[in-house]
Recover the amino acids of this structure.
């Protein structure tokens, strides 16, 4: 058994790098990674969602090439929105409206273009969005948001002042 303070030094290499345009300040959240244990590759694309932008990263079948598509979503204002494999949820305070929930459906990747790894095709040219308000919690501020795509529910930690937090589970999808 090794001491927990011992760190193993491993070699690594950057296999994909791409400069990103910053559309809005803030932090991004990423989708879960699902591995195909039989073939050893990703199942589906990886997504990052944050203020003003959705990035989709599509690995090739052999994981040698990666492609990136970015979409502007100016309606998303919150840092650290909840991101799943198919959709995202941004819980954010909007002036004059209170707590507003924006749903973001990830465009479906339908295949790589002829120039393998440089670009990929998606089913739509824009990101489908929706929004809703829940009156009972409209006055609260979101602290954390997570989404369970399997059940269609969102789990939220909400704040009403510095010493008052609550947990809410919403049926959203």
């Amino acid at each position: 058994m090794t001491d927990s303070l011992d760190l193993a030094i491993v070699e690594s290499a950057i296999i994909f790098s791409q400069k990103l345009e910053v559309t809005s300040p803030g932090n991004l959240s990423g989708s879960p990674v699902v591995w195909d244990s039989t073939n050893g590759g990703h199942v589906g694309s990886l997504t990052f969602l944050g203020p003003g932008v959705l990035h989709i990263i599509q690995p090739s079948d052999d994981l040698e090439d990666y492609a990136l598509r970015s979409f502007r979503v100016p309606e998303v204002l919150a840092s650290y929105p909840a991101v799943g494999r198919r959709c995202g949820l941004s819980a954010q305070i909007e002036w004059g409206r209170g707590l507003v929930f924006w749903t973001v459906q990830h465009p479906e990747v339908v295949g790589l273009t002829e120039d393998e790894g440089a670009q990929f095709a998606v089913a739509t040219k824009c990101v489908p969005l929706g929004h809703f308000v829940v009156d009972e919690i409209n006055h609260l501020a979101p602290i954390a948001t997570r989404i369970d795509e399997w059940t269609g529910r969102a789990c939220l930690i909400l704040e009403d002042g510095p010493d008052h937090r609550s947990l809410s589970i919403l049926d959203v999808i």
About this structure: The two ends are 46 Å apart (CA to CA). Residues 29-171 form one domain.
